[in-house]
Write a structure and sequence with these properties.
The chain contains 15 helices and 20 strands. The protein has 622 residues and is α+β, with helices and mostly antiparallel strands. Strands 3, 4, 15, 16, 17, 18, 19 and 20 form an eight-stranded mixed sheet that branches. Strands 8-6-7-11-12-13 form a six-stranded antiparallel sheet. A three-stranded antiparallel sheet has the order 1-2-5, with no helix packed on it.
Length: 622
């Protein structure tokens, strides 16, 4: 990431710096502001490090002309907001952009070895250099975080002055200055040495600082720091959880909680967007006349949406709510959202019957779908136009948000807001289903169930290890049909990246795997013009689809890592894959819904010892 030239800071008449004249530090793409550098994440720009500010602070800088409003009612209702907003652009045309704060504040000078807060080096305005040595300062490589999502500086003073007879809470009372040096013998933590000029404590290395109980042994607990909301911001409810040492660039420092939805009728026409802030009030009324009176007052008699359409939208919204539970969980409502998408993808939405502004067009192929019957594939649909909205709901640190029923999600602002950051993708895709009768017979086979059970057990063990309370860990979603659909989507993406000319990173999967669903949608996942060139839709016609599936299955039969790949008892960093590696079925992380876990190409093609476990094994036998 190459930052543009720094701008000179200008001050207003009252001595403050105008928001739109803050110095520019670098550039990120809008999509990265949701998935990689969202609120609360750390971002490195050259030799400097910053944390992305929260929405309370950024609300004054997210100019409406730079961060347009995005509507997607189904997702907004799920996340209890009124609308979404695109992150502001950070290119040269931007007048403001995303706000960041310097973090960590502790820096070291490679020349004089001083280790102290950034301001104590007396750097010149707008630069991060040692005021004495005039060399670039190095931000602390280490930070600490807790499972509740708080983030703080590494306690260097306590780490050095850690004798058993010393109170570790008396920060800096020795009167000395901290020093950091590297002896250069190895690249391990043992070579990073911290000392204090007070002479009351011996110099110590950073070795052992990453132990789970390293800071707990020093009687240090989390104080609830939230630097993305301000240098003095702490959790008013307190914290007290154990702290963990992390590398500043570790993926555990920030993990986004993303939720997405497809725009489907009746919401995909955009007609309901003017009512975004009125749905909560409208849902309180059951009578048509009461709704008419409310709309007349809210829009002063000039409602942009006809009353009949409003009633249709309200009926569709109530239909999507789970009926058997008065207070359904978030996960249950999210599954209901997917169920409606699955139904709409099956039924289609013909372009000839829709207005020009329709954002969801799903049609039946012109070719004969019977050619797909030998494959066990049915119901292919050409999704000629689709729109997906991906929203940043919250973020976590140290823990996976999907590993527990009570995830430690950190909100994006101090106070609840009626909007969230989001990105929208407009493109195309291909939807297909597996034959239910053949799928039911296949997944009941003992050999298939036993193979998937190995993955499910390994994944469940990981979920329980990551959860604070193992008894509250969520159940692994691994089932025979889920793993089969997941792996099929991966090999199709790899195949279409060769046939249709799309890079695999620009395609994305969306799985519909449940007792009453067995489908997969492969669609373009980029927000630029490459998402609507028509090349992917052309692959969904029965004859090209038949060729693509057969070719992908034959490619999946062999891997350059065989026989190790096929015969592996467990694969992946956490052992949740079987016959799957980067040489055969794994994809870029942006293309996969499940972070490249729960994959097994043996369920597609079988194994040398048990060919019957392959759903498509008869293609290879023929």
């Amino acid at each position: 990431m190459t930052p543009p030239p720094a701008r000179r800071r200008r001050t207003a008449a009252n001595g403050t710096t105008p928001a739109h004249n803050l110095p520019r530090r670098g550039t990120v793409r809008r999509a990265q502001a949701i998935s990689t550098y969202g609120v609360g994440s750390l971002i490195a720009v050259d030799h400097e490090s910053f944390v992305v500010s929260g929405l309370d602070e950024a609300d004054r800088s997210w100019r409406r002309d730079e961060s347009p409003v995005v509507h997607e009612r189904r997702l907004a209702r799920l996340l209890d907001v009124d609308y979404f907003r695109l992150p502001p652009a950070s290119d040269d045309t931007s007048k403001d952009g995303l706000r960041v704060r310097r973090f960590p504040l502790m820096h070291s000078c490679p020349e004089c070895n001083d280790l102290q807060p950034h301001r104590d080096f007396s750097p010149p305005a707008g630069r991060s250099v040692c005021g004495t040595c005039e060399v670039d300062l190095v931000p602390s490589r280490f930070v600490v975080a807790c499972e509740a999502g708080h983030l703080d500086e590494f306690p260097y003073w306590q780490w050095v002055h850690r004798s058993s007879d010393r109170d570790s809470t008396r920060i800096g009372t020795c009167g000395g200055k901290l020093r950091m040096r590297t002896n250069g013998r190895t690249s391990s933590l043992r070579s990073i040495v911290i000392s204090c000029t007070c002479g009351q404590a011996p110099e110590v290395s950073m070795e052992g600082s990453f132990r789970r109980n390293a800071l707990k042994d020093l009687r240090l607990t989390c104080r609830g720091a939230r630097p993305w909301l301000g240098t003095s911001a702490t959790d008013p409810a307190g914290c007290g959880l154990s702290l963990r040492t992390l590398q500043r660039g570790s993926s555990s420092v920030w993990q986004p909680v993303l939720k997405s939805a497809l725009s489907i009728p009746p919401w995909s026409s955009g007609r309901a967007d003017p009512l975004a802030e009125h749905w909560a009030a409208l849902r309180q009324f059951d009578e048509r006349e009461h709704i008419r009176i409310y709309l007349q007052g809210a829009f002063q008699g000039n409602c942009p949406v006809p009353l009949d359409e409003v009633m249709t939208l309200l009926d569709a919204e109530r239909e999507e709510d789970p009926e058997h539970d008065r207070a359904p969980s978030f996960d249950h409502r999210y599954r209901a959202l997917r169920n409606k998408e699955y139904e709409r993808l099956r039924s289609g939405n013909d372009e000839s019957e829709q207005s020009r502004g329709e954002q969801f067009v799903c049609e039946t192929p012109l070719g004969d779908p019977s050619v797909l019957q030998p494959l066990g594939i049915t119901g292919p649909m050409l999704v000629k136009k689709l729109r997906e909205v991906r929203a940043l709901k919250a973020f976590t640190r140290l823990v996976d948000a999907e590993s527990t029923t009570d995830p430690k999600e950190m909100p994006l602002s101090r106070n609840p807001l009626r909007w969230l950051p989001a990105m929208e993708v407009q493109g195309e895709g291909v939807f297909l289903r597996l034959d239910e009768s053949r799928l039911d017979a296949w997944e009941k086979a003992p050999a298939v169930a036993a193979r998937v059970e190995r993955m499910r057990t390994a994944h469940q063990r990981v979920l329980e290890q990551r959860a604070d309370d193992p008894s509250r860990a969520v159940s692994s979603p691994a089932t025979p049909r889920m793993v089969l659909l997941h792996t099929l989507a991966h090999i199709l993406i790899n195949e279409w990246s060769l046939e249709a000319g799309y890079p695999s990173a620009s395609l994305r999967e969306r799985l519909y795997a449940a007792d009453d669903m067995a489908g997969v949608l492969v669609y373009t996942a980029t927000s630029d013009s490459a998402g609507s060139l028509g090349g992917l839709v052309a692959q969904g016609e029965p004859e090209p689809l038949d060729r693509a599936v057969r070719s992908a299955i034959r490619r999946a039969e062999w891997c350059s890592s065989d026989p190790l790949c096929m015969e592996a008892e467990a694969a992946g960093s956490i052992g949740t894959n079987l016959a799957a590696c980067h040489a055969c079925v794994m994809l870029p992380e942006t293309s996969c819904e499940h972070n490249n876990i729960l994959l097994d190409r043996a369920l597609l093609v079988g194994t040398p010892d048990e060919p019957s476990v392959g759903f498509f094994q008869q293609i290879l036998a023929g």
